[in-house]
Amino acid sequence: xxxxxxxxxxxxxxxxxxEIHGTxxxxxxxxxxxxxxxxxxxxxxxxLSQPSLQPFHKLLYHARGxxxxxxxxxxxxxxxxxxxxxxxxxxxxxxxxxxPSGFILIGHSMGAKVAQHYAATGASxxxxxxxxxxxAPLRGLSLPPEAQAQQRAAYQSAEGVRFVLDNVxxxxxxxxxQDVVEQCVRDSxxxxxxxxxxxxxxxxxxxxxxxxxxxxxxxxVLRGDRDFEREVVGELGTEQGWVNRVVEDCGHLxxxxxxxxxxxxxxxxxxxxx
Length: 274
What we know:
Blueprint: E1 4-9, E2 15-21, E3 30-34, H1 45-48, E4 58-61, H2 80-93, E5 103-108, H3 110-120, E6 127-133, H4 145-154, H5 158-169, H6 178-188, H7 193-203, E7 219-224, H8 230-233, E8 243-247, H9 254-257, H10 259-273
Parallel strand pairs: 3-4, 3-5, 5-6, 6-7, 7-8
Antiparallel strand pairs: 1-2, 2-4
């Protein structure tokens, strides 16, 4: 259960809802989670329910435009740099950016691109590392017009979300339990018009590849062997020494499909950077 829930208001008037679990530790970094396009903090519930992760200080939040967080009517207000600024504001507001034990960013898909951008553009010196889960690349992910239209349409109805979960985002039908599927449906239907449109129409494709060499902290990349983006994205950061690992029998939704494996990787990473 979350210890506390609160909000902050950004410079453009967006209201970001966040939750804090636990208290800062003198021996371990705080853990900050960024969800995927259509996700929410609930995406990480199977991971955070593991007893080994209970003692950690954790921050989770709803990205701008994904209810209950709000966002502007301006359709250009949902890009990666703006979401990176949101992350920076949250870290400062919660004092995690100044936690002497440091912090780790765990970003999933869209959230992973935001985490990379933050790490490359004036991150707190107390950032200890990035755990990138099925990440979208900084260099941009170009989607053809028909794929953009399909992705947007999928989030217009519960039936569309269920189809994408079974046939695109996971290893296959039946991978997720029915209760998890319904939670994903609720999460995916919570986006406002700007947030739902932005990722497929421009944010996924925004080009920040030149920033990758400016990420100066350890990075681990996890990718499911059946992730629909695996062949398109490939391995990331090999020239910078990023560690790329494959999660077997898994699609794009590692936090929901393989939470135990993700938990092990996270604990190993914490030990590495602490």
